[in-house]
Design brief:
alpha/beta, Aldehyde Dehydrogenase, Chain A, domain 1, Aldehyde Dehydrogenase, Chain A, domain 2, 3 domains, globular, binds nicotinamide-adenine-dinucleotide, binds 5-oxo-L-norvaline, NAD, oxidoreductase
Length: 592
């Protein structure tokens, strides 16, 4: 492995003459052993460079067609399990499940608000502090565990979600977050597993990335250290997969996490943590503390070891947290400048021009606006359509939307739409709908009905506006409400300008056209209007490993969930230079 050289050598800084040196010939088969801090009394060895399994590809999602009788039965059984065995979900701090003397809140099934599907504990101030301590303690071991061991935990969890817990995970997501089975499959099965598996591949590739040059006698290395301190993950209600990605990506890179889940996704999020524990996740690596978001966050953000925020949720909440962090940076509170990673809201557009394929643009608009009740950050909520195609488009759209009745998709398993998530959301959207009849610039085309006596149900609603700058074209309602503006074909340049500038967001958007010249123009003019830009496809439905997800402007830091770029935010790179040569004079060659 080692070869001797007695040549006169120059090192990388050109400062010294070296008379002889031992040059390492390094290859991936070299043996590198490593022990952790002896205090931990553990020994880890890494006797090869392990690569991520080669077969990593998108998880196959089940279709739940009429013929998939067995799948339906297994799903029904798990739904029945949750509805007949309601439990109290504990906090999990350092692997300990904590229940007693905590205030308890009911888990609400948004489709059936009186149904008892369990309750959950709220963290106290002391709990939050213990969660921070626990994560810092666990870090000593976790950050020294080999990448293979850390990866194996997420690969094992993926396998468990795909098999043993598939139907339970689906049932928890459908009951707690009001999804139908298809939306459940693409979220808590497909995307969640894809996040876990693809991150292993991305991390494996990142670790392989090493300096391209080492001068003779020198060995340069790049080390991808986890961040110092702990990561704070604040997760939204609407995707179980997003919660998994927000905790999973930093943890895989050797960080430990304090996790504040959303009050409206507790059932699935706790199950996810249990699956990770069954897969071998050591205690304290992920600490689960539901609780009052402001109180919990204030304690965490005021801790000097806070090293990163991994957030997904609304723009307003993200902005408020950012300013708290900035304020603390100003006070010199933190050890490091914290990383801030946040994906936030959107007001996503469809542009349908006079050459668009009618059926394709209608049905993609319908799916983009109303699947999962419009509660995707990527949901289509403003439609700009050419007057030439509008009459036929409107007929086909309204004919199909009128037939949709939101329902409890855990009872009527084949339902297309369910409820909105909670009373606040129901009130916000129903108030907007109520305002339509008093507004001369708005015309109701479909829907407009809502009822919260059993669950938070709102009919898919379409409204046309005569004012391109109406607040309905700018506000994120995060529900089944689509606003349409019909444009004259001669106006297209102004329309492109409005799409780009009338909201502060920049998340997703789609253009529908069969003209290549038009498509080219839209792509150019709308360059910064959407971080995920679709051509002849809906504004929702990004797939990990295919379209990495996120937007800029007020839609977030655009670190792209589901991509190699994201994981680089959770490491702090150390450059290591080791010199095998020795010097015997301070003089430079020119000092002769
Ligand atoms: N861009 C994306 O990738 C993406 C993905 C999903 C959702 N979203 C956005 O999320 C929003 C919907 O999700 P939501 O209703 O869960 O969002 P939200 O902002 O209400 O809540 C998100 C999380 O923040 C917590 N939170 C609320 N107020 C807080 C505060 N003052 N301080 C600290 N934490 C606080 C909540 O408890 C929750 O855990 C929409 O705006 C949607 O566009 C964006
Ligand atoms: N990644 C999802 C949206 C996530 C936000 O809610 C999509 O592309 O539809």
């Amino acid at each position: 492995m080692l070869s001797k050289s007695s040549k006169i050598l120059r090192n990388s800084t050109n400062k010294f003459i070296i008379k002889s040196v031992t040059i390492p010939k390094l290859s991936s088969s070299n043996i590198i052993s490593r022990t952790t801090n002896t205090n931990t009394k553990r020994f880890y060895s890494e006797l090869a460079h392990f690569e991520a399994p080669r077969h990593i590809k998108n998880e196959h999602t089940k279709l739940f067609t009429k013929d998939d009788v067995k799948d339906w039965e297994l799903l029904k059984k798990e739904i029945d399990y949750f509805t007949t065995t309601p439990k109290t979900i504990p906090l999990v701090i350092n692997g300990v499940k904590i229940k007693s003397n905590r205030s308890i809140k009911k888990i609400i099934n948004p489709s059936n608000i009186k149904q008892d599907i369990g309750s959950y504990c709220q963290a106290t101030k002391e709990d939050v502090e213990s969660a921070i301590k626990s994560s810092l303690e666990a870090k000593k071991i976790w950050s020294n565990m080999s990448f293979a061991d850390r990866s194996a935990i997420f690969l094992k969890a993926s396998e468990l979600i795909s098999t043993k817990y598939r139907y339970k995970m689906l049932a928890a997501t459908m009951l707690g977050q009001g999804k139908n089975v298809f939306q459940g499959e693409i979220d808590c099965i497909g995307e969640l597993i894809d996040f876990f598996r693809f991150n292993v591949k991305y991390a494996s590739d990142l670790y392989k990335s090493q300096p391209p040059e080492s001068s003779t006698g020198v060995w340069n290395r790049t080390e991808y250290r986890p961040l110092e301190g702990f990561v704070y993950a604040i997760t939204p209600f609407n995707f179980t997969a997003i919660a998994g990605g927000l905790i999973g990506a930093p943890a895989l890179m050797g960080n430990t996490i304090v996790w504040k889940p959303s009050d409206s996704s507790i059932l699935s999020n706790y199950l996810l943590l249990e699956i990770l524990e069954e897969s071998g996740l050591p205690s304290g690596v992920i600490n689960f503390i539901p609780g009052n978001p402001i109180e919990v966050s204030d304690i965490i953000l005021n801790n000097k070891d806070f090293s990163a925020l991994h957030f997904t949720g609304s723009t307003k909440v993200f902005s408020s947290i950012w300013s708290k962090i900035a304020n603390n940076v100003g006070k010199g509170l933190y050890k490091d400048f914290p990383r801030i990673i946040g994906e936030t809201g959107g007001k996503n557009f469809h542009l349908v021009d006079n050459t668009a394929n009618l059926e394709n643009s209608v049905f993609n608009t319908l799916r983009g606006a109303f699947e999962y009740q419009g509660q995707k950050c990527s949901a289509t909520s403003r439609l700009y359509i050419s007057e030439s195609i509008w009459p036929k488009f409107k007929d086909l759209l309204i004919k199909n939307v009128d037939k949709i009745n939101p329902t409890n998709c855990c009872n009527e398993l084949q339902g297309f739409m369910g409820p909105v998530i909670h009373e606040n959301s129901f009130n916000k959207i129903s108030n907007a709908i109520k305002s339509i009849s008093n507004d001369s610039e708005l015309k109701l085309l479909s829907g407009g009905k809502f009822d919260k006596s059993i669950g938070y149900f709102i009919k898919p609603t379409i409204v046309e506006t005569s004012n391109i700058d109406h607040s309905f074209m700018k506000t994120e309602f995060f529900g089944p409400l689509l606003t349409v503006y019909v444009y004259k074909d001669s106006e297209i340049d102004n329309i492109l300008e409005k799409i780009d500038s009338s909201t502060g967001y920049g998340l997703t958007g789609s253009v529908f056209s069969t003209s290549r010249i038009n498509i080219r123009k839209y792509e150019e003019k709308l360059r910064y209007s959407a971080g995920n830009f679709y051509i002849n496809d809906k504004s929702t439905g990004a797939v990990v490993g295919q379209q990495s997800f996120g937007g800029s402007r007020l839609s977030g830091t655009n670190d792209k969930a589901g991509s190699a770029a994201l994981i680089t935010r959770f490491v702090s790179v150390r450059s290591i230079k080791e010199n095998f040569g020795e010097i015997n004079s301070h003089l430079n060659p020119s000092n002769f």
